[in-house]
DNA sequence: GTTTACCTAGTTTTT
DNA sequence: CTAGGTAAAC
């Protein structure tokens, strides 16, 4: 634990100290990669508490991922000891959920509103499209969902969207958006973007609620500000308006989420929003060697729409960047595996000091094969997210329906999982029956249990539902009623899950299945039950799992090389980094080649990747690779040619034969 | 209503 | 190439 200010400031450079000690008013910290920005942010919070400027209760610290939030909490606990848990350290989304769980009823939502993830949203959009007779092949649900998401990130509701819709696509989206949003509201559900938008609406509609939080959260600190979207920025401005103790930290060069609505202008225009803001720039890098830093600086300098900035280091030059040209992606992967093994055997690195980055998840495949063959341990980070697995989503859907009977998407999901003789036809009949009586699907099913032989059953038959389907429904209804009862009696979510597994035969089905994947699924199920047991409330558990991504718990992958996308790599660092697939069309991605703005985002992504490396950086590409089963020739990434030649060395095995050279 | 076999279309990044 | 959807058979 830290006792004095001196102790806290020890080891920080003068600029960092300034950021930590700043008092009174808005603060913008422009922090380059590896300049210790997270440390500054953490120290600043500790400093606020230690000097009595703030109480833990009045601090809101926003991080980009739950993992970052967890680490920050841990560090703060180590520095300050007990009391830290009263602080809000979370992502925007988690903070919003926390607020909404208290006040959502003011806007007509259930306190136990459901959170829909991207897959749920897509399903709902699909259903809406079908209801509106829109061809889902011509206008894909995913595209529409993305457009709606973008609108929400800009806090554009469906009315305004409809007003300003341009062209046939947007007009179609406008229709879908309106219906989609009505369905969300009537099922008391929110998608990811709603969490932000509804919170903003809440603050606007209920000024007293806003004031409550303004009074409470007197110090607002936000990390990775370059990746905030309009809605997030708005929330920060609203909360910070009163006390103006807003501190944002970020680096415009590391803005890599524009495709998701992030807007660099939020950080660039912070000083306009807060004209009295103090600006501090952290430009000394403590992570990478000089060679790596110079190379990264040289690459990012090619972005024209950028405020020039140069990171510097007092560290040594280090090894050159290793460039490797492979015949194809398998040779490339084999090279990485071999070199990783050599680094471990000869250079004293541990496998968990090593990471391989790629542009798209699909690229991990060749790597996995090569590493298995070479017997080098690896772990793919964040590819198939735990909470997106079918079995996990199925089980969670049961809990969601228990918590929120209005949740239609989840109700539809579980009606016939596991099979209980209710196919599409019965489902639609049931849905119509529910609609006539003005109930949500989940509520209608539950009502069946209350009236086994009375009107419920008769109505069902009148609705044309077969005996077989009806008995399946009754069984489900009984289960849901019992689960809801258990929940009220205070049974843990874990107990509820076990009940679901036993009563539905879900567990048995997996146990009886003879496939390998069934075993993995059983393990996932067991893990989910384990997670659920740690929670005492259903709402807490469901909120928490809805917002946790797999990369959040990548915690200490011991003794294994990590594979991940460049996006996942943000915020991490490794002794040695391999960036593979440095081919034009792969990275930068094909779809960005004709758009200068997108190309600049790709370049920032490259910059992020390069600056993750502490001492060794490898960049590899292949002359030929299989894309969708057919062979494609590629030329080296333009990013490679942007690195000064004197910083680069070609690896052994490299040959110029049969391919183009590096353009200069 | 469920299972199977085909066929097709789609391939970026994610809180 | 492969995941997902669809059309046909059980």
What does this structure look like?
There is one protein chain. With 664 residues, the protein is an alpha/beta fold. It contains 30 helices and 16 strands. The strands form three sheets. Strands 9, 10, 11, 12, 13, 14, 15 and 16 form an eight-stranded mixed beta sheet that branches. The chain is globular and about 80 Å long. The two termini are 53 Å apart. Residues 654-660 have low confidence and may be disordered. The structure holds a DNA duplex (15 and 10 nucleotides).
Question: What keyword list fits this structure?
Answer:
664 residues; alpha/beta; eight-stranded mixed sheet; six-stranded parallel sheet; 30 helices; 16 strands; 51% helix; globular; DNA-binding
The count of β-strands is 16
The portion of residues forming beta strands comes to 5-15%
Secondary structural class: alpha/beta
pLDDT < 50 runs, ≥5 residues: 654-660
Short description:
The protein is α/β, with parallel strands linked by helices and 664 residues long.
What topology emerges from the helices and strands here?
Blueprint: H1 5-9, H2 14-21, E1 27-31, H3 37-50, E2 59-62, H4 66-80, E3 88-90, H5 92-103, E4 114-116, H6 118-131, H7 141-153, H8 158-164, H9 167-186, E5 189-191, H10 192-205, H11 207-216, E6 219-222, H12 230-240, E7 246-250, H13 265-268, H14 270-273, E8 278-282, H15 290-300, E9 321-328, H16 329-346, E10 354-358, H17 364-374, E11 378-380, H18 390-403, H19 408-415, H20 424-436, H21 441-450, H22 455-462, H23 467-488, H24 493-504, H25 506-512, H26 516-533, H27 538-547, E12 561-565, H28 566-569, E13 574-579, H29 596-610, E14 613-627, E15 630-633, H30 638-641, E16 648-650
Parallel strand pairs: 1-7, 1-8, 2-3, 2-6, 4-5, 6-7, 9-14, 9-16, 10-12, 10-13, 11-12, 13-14
Antiparallel strand pairs: 14-15
Helix pairs in contact: 2-3, 3-4, 5-10, 6-7, 6-9, 8-9, 10-11, 10-12, 15-29, 16-17, 18-19, 18-23, 18-24, 20-21, 21-23, 23-24, 24-26
This protein binds a DNA duplex (15 and 10 nucleotides) through residues 64-66, 91-94, 118, 137, 140, 192, 195, 227, 256-257, 259-260, 359-362, 382, 385, 416, 419, 421-426, 468-469, 547, 549, 551, 565-568, 589-592, 601, 605, 626-630.
